[in-house]
Amino acid sequence: MRKFPRLSTCHEDPTPYPPGTAYMDGQYLPIGEARISVLDNGFLHSDATYDVAHVWNGAFLRLNDHLDRFFAGLDKLHMTIPYDRAQVTEILCNCVALSGLQNAYVEFICTRGLSPRFSRDPRDCQNRFIAFAIPFGSIANPAQLKHGLHVAITDLLRIPPASVDPTVKNYHWLDLVKGLYAAYARGADTAILVDGAGNIAEGPGFNVFAVKNGAILTPKNGVLQGITRQTIFDLSAALQVSCTAGTLSPAALITAEEVFVTSTAGGVMPVTRIDGQPVGSGKIGPITARMTEQYWRLHDDPQMRTVVEYPKMPDTGTPGA
Ligand code: PLP
Q1: How many structural domains is the chain composed of?
Q2: What is the DSSP letter of 33?
Q3: Which of the listed residues 135, 158, 185 is the one where a domain comes to its end?
Q4: What number does the ligand 1 atom closest to the CA of 223 have?
Q5: How far, in Å, from the CA of 152 to the mean position of ligand 1?
Q6: Is residue 8 domain-resident?
């Protein structure tokens, strides 16, 4: 008879985890100890919605907008959680405060959960809420932020909105991951996927913007309505720069004067090369630079901030380490 290795009761995971704090099942715990059942439909079927907000210098940016999107997603997916907005806010702030992180990436998730009898009916599942705070991360690394990203326009079709509603933030990422591999094979940093008509959709974790004749254009349909995308609309209105959502063809993107992408994970990120060719002058353009500057300045606006209260350190009295 074939011998199987002895069953171990040890739950140690060899994967190194970043520092951070998670919340699940009514308790806060180190991020490396936050685990879900392999029977959770969030894991088995990607049956989940989530949101990602960030904390910069001890305060969330536009947390209310992230909460609006998250709660709207729950409704659309027929999911419920036992917490209201104020309680979710408290949980998120506690995750950040307990982690001590001044700059954090904060994800909150609702999975379909599992049914006690492993029924295949999603209505039988107990939905599960999870939140965590880990160090802030950006899609673009410091060199890419300084010199611009190199993107590949792939012919991969972003999952159509008639199949999965892109306004519900979701984990249907196999098309995006495929796009990343296609981009790497072409020597690019990241990928842009197209919609059913061959026009620009979005990329792995970001919305796309093109600047032509001083006006900004971003895809209207088939994309996540990013909170950072909304910030670009707001900043454009304040700066009296035209910014519209419409059809953006690959040809229009390639011939744009400037291109940038936006995400909570990194903010406004310049694109200076598409498929090996320079965008405009090949340097970060003035509108991209202005939007980037204004975006980071917005982090000081009290109306945009939800301040985290960190526990006082007993010895020095300084906020979280
Ligand atoms: N598009 C997709 C597919 C995303 O996953 C994200 C963020 O993760 C975005 C766009 C940008 O959205 P936001 O600005 O809200 O981070």
Answers
A1: 2
A2: G
A3: 135
A4: 1
A5: 18
A6: no
- CA–centroid distance, residue 200 to ligand 1 (Å): 15
Residues 183 and 86 reside in one and the same domain: no
Substitution site in 50, 169, 295 for ligand 1 pocket (most atoms within 8 Å of beta carbon): 169
Question: Domain range holding 234?
Answer: 142-300
167 lies in the same domain as 287: yes
3-state SS, one letter per residue, for 137-164 = CCCCCHHHHHHCEEEEEEEEECCCCCCC
Rounded Cα gap, residues 263 and 41, in angstroms: 27
Encode pLDDT of 160-219 as tens digits. Answer: 999 999 999 999 999 999 999 999 999 999 999 999 999 999 999 999 999 999 999 999
CATH code for position 172:
3.20.10.10
Q: Give the pLDDT confidence of 259-285 residue by residue, as tens digits.
A: 999 999 999 999 999 999 999 999 999
Reduce the secondary structure of 277-317 to three states and give it as a string: EECCCCCCCHHHHHHHHHHHHHHHCHHHEEECCCCCCCCCC
Q: How far is the CA of 263 from the centre of ligand 1 (A)?
A: 5
d(CA 152, CA 250): 11
- Whether 179 lines ligand 1, by a CB cut-off of 6 Å, is no
Question: Ligand 1: distance of its center to the CA of 261 in Å?
Answer: 10
Q: Are residues 219 and 73 in the same domain?
A: no
- Ligand 1 contact via 170 beta carbon (within 6 Å): no
Residue 130 shares a structural domain with residue 152: no
